[in-house]
Amino acid sequence: MPEASDPDQGRIRLQKVLAQAGMGSRRACEELIADGRVTIDGEEAMLGDRVDPEVSVVEVDGVPIGIRPGSVYYLLNKPTGVVTTADDPQGRPVVVDLVPETPRVFPVGRLDLDTEGLLLLTNDGDLTHRLTHPSFGVEKEYLAEVEGTPGRGALRRLREGVELDDGLTAPATVGTVGPSVLRIVIHEGRNRQVRRMCEAVGHPVRRLVRTRIGPVTDHLLAPGAWRELTQAEVRALERAAAESATDEG
Ligand code: URA
Questions:
Q1: Is the pTM of this model over 0.90?
Q2: What is the CATH number of domain 73-133+220-248?
Q3: pLDDT tens digits for 235-244?
Q4: Nearest CA to ligand 1 atom 5
Q5: Residue whose CB lies within 8 A of the most ligand 1 atoms, among 82, 132, 197, 208, for a mutation test
């Protein structure tokens, strides 16, 4: 919060940026800086430095923050009929079969068997935790093709909150893309949430596609295809997770 009123706008204390990227406590991050292990745009950082994390490349021991050595981050366009798990007891196709076998990665959160779209897979357990823990709320955007044409009342209910059997949903951003196609942005991650929300307002989902996870999107990735996240995308995800945690607190 002090940064919001700081004259040095957009520039955040380096130790805070490092801590948000999961490099340890602020105190541990100060030690990294004091030990000369941190650079900003290639120059050795000093205690007291501030950076704009949108612009500057911050590295620890020569590795950009947000990228842990040995960590891989894949973005998969999950097709329908593939289970979001590493191993399915029923022997159905699973998402990890669609990406390289080694190093072993795990899905970040889940998409239903019949849901398509963007899914992250990684071996970075810390980022997975920070993106999936209920107290974090990184935005997820979906395109939902629904039965019928939702009217103003249904749209308002979706936006303001729908009573489900596990409680009222948080406010959502909902727009219409066509008479039966909604763009829905939620930051909760309840089981089958979008389907249950739409069903509750009388417009069951016929097709559901996730089109964005926080800052990460890709309209060109074909169903079943994957790519590695760029370093900038990993850093942006780290920031989105840190910001959503701050919002909650
Ligand atoms: N909401 C759903 O209903 N299903 C998903 O797979 C993701 C969000």
A1: no
A2: 3.30.70.580
A3: 889 888 877 7
A4: 111
A5: 208
